[in-house]
């Protein structure tokens, strides 16, 4: 995300300090960031901090005499691609819900016609109070996006809902709202990601090195392009992307069931998960105790999900598989494309530095029955963007 004009409204919550990182990161990426603070917010973070991070004058007072090149709240409101209020206190949500415009933040907010997002952060009881919930519902009714607060430890000592999401999560939500190229609008994209786990006993399982980064990047890009996204996720430590339906699964069998159940309604299925090919024949219901000598675990084949849906695929559905290889990349990938009846196979060799598990970059080739497109070394986010554009943007 770059070259966007983002207005960040900061209100008086202790989580205001997290917004310093958000502003800094948005600016570093090449966006124009304007911070408007309420008077009380200045007690938590100084305007100078945001001014330094954003390289823009921070506005707190509507009637300041030294800064009136134009009617600032109106010009900023016209210019903004997105207005985000974070942290949003119960007080600001109540004001916004009822059209109160009594300071720079609320007047600019009311004058803005761009997409608006509110990120509540407050004590759990304040958030759960039916008055606050009604005000949030009112904001939603007027088309504002609400980013649900994560549950966790709060500054007041309570543990529960009301925590401000991490800056990276807010940034991800912003990215989803400012994208203008919505070429997947109206399409349902189902994506699998991460590693499956095959249980041996209640303590142990078989898995692989997949971290889910590629699949999650694809889910975010598809969402940014306007798709309804269902992300069927195996094991990963990644945060749940904003605006994506995430279904958590454990084993290859669970993933298969979930993909098959979603397949009818899907326009596109992308199988980027690293699915186990084998699972233990017997799953012990107790911990297997060690004994003298070696241990062999008998494994059986799992069902191939891509093959299953490739066979069922309708003319108007697009199925994309992955092929992670150590040898003969193109031959193996082309074989998978044909055998599994996919429209595309995204092939990568984990032998190449910068590709494969855990890293933030990838090196892939997009293989169709008629072409091979080499994307070269890119970040996983850019790889995801290029894959979706190449395969789905007509
Ligand atoms: N796949 C699947 N179901 C499985 C195994 C793999 O749907 N049980 C999918 C993967 O999600 C990927 C593609 O098939 O999109 C290729 O997976 P990969 O592990 O590269 O190859 P396999 O088909 O498992 O073959 P091999 O392990 O022999 O390379």
Automatic annotation (TrEMBL):
CTP binds at residues 277, 287, 322, 336, 340. Signal peptide: none annotated. Its EC number is 4.1.1.36, 6.3.2.5. Binds 1 FMN per subunit. Its cofactor is Mg(2+); FMN. Residues 6-175 form the Flavoprotein domain. It comes from the Bacteria. GO terms for cellular component: phosphopantothenoylcysteine decarboxylase complex. Residues 184-392 form the DNA/pantothenate metabolism flavoprotein C-terminal domain. Keywords: Coiled coil, Decarboxylase, Flavoprotein, FMN, Ligase, Lyase, Magnesium, Metal-binding, Multifunctional enzyme. Catalyzes two steps in the biosynthesis of coenzyme A. In the first step cysteine is conjugated to 4'-phosphopantothenate to form 4-phosphopantothenoylcysteine, in the latter compound is decarboxylated to form 4'-phosphopantotheine. NCBIfam families: coaBC_dfp (TIGR00521). This is Coenzyme A biosynthesis bifunctional protein CoaBC. The lineage of its organism: Bacteria, Bacillati, Bacillota, Erysipelotrichia, Erysipelotrichales. The gene is coaBC.
